[in-house]
Write a structure and sequence with these properties.
mainly alpha; 71% helix; 0% strand
Length: 108
């Protein structure tokens, strides 16, 4: 499993989990396993992509390889489409805006 290397926002970590819930249901084994560990996994880092990678690795290591691959196959195109969207206010793509924000935070 390859880690994601995206600039993510917190709600996108939740969106990834929502993909799993939509496919497998609230009472499925994968969601029950994730629910028990979700907050600890989210506390692993303040960087959202690291949180998502921790969730993915945890599920993968707990025998949910196919489920992670399914969620990845839905999430990757969704997030990549979002990155290409152009803001009508700035004229920049979402990815450009996120990179700009990241550079600003790094300077602080």
């Amino acid at each position: 499993m390859i880690d994601f290397n995206y600039i993510l926002r917190g709600f996108e970590v939740d969106e990834y989990c929502d993909i799993l819930i939509s496919k497998y249901g609230e009472s499925s084994g994968i969601i029950q396993c994730l629910d028990k560990n979700y907050y600890d996994l989210r506390k692993t880092s303040h960087i959202y992509v690291e949180q998502l990678n921790a969730i993915r690795k945890f599920l993968y290591d707990n025998q949910y390889k196919n489920e992670v691959e399914y969620a990845d196959s839905v999430f990757i195109p969704m997030i990549e489409r979002r990155f290409c969207q152009v803001s009508k206010y700035s004229g920049l793509t979402e990815l450009e805006l996120r990179k700009k924000e990241l550079r600003r935070k790094e300077k602080q």
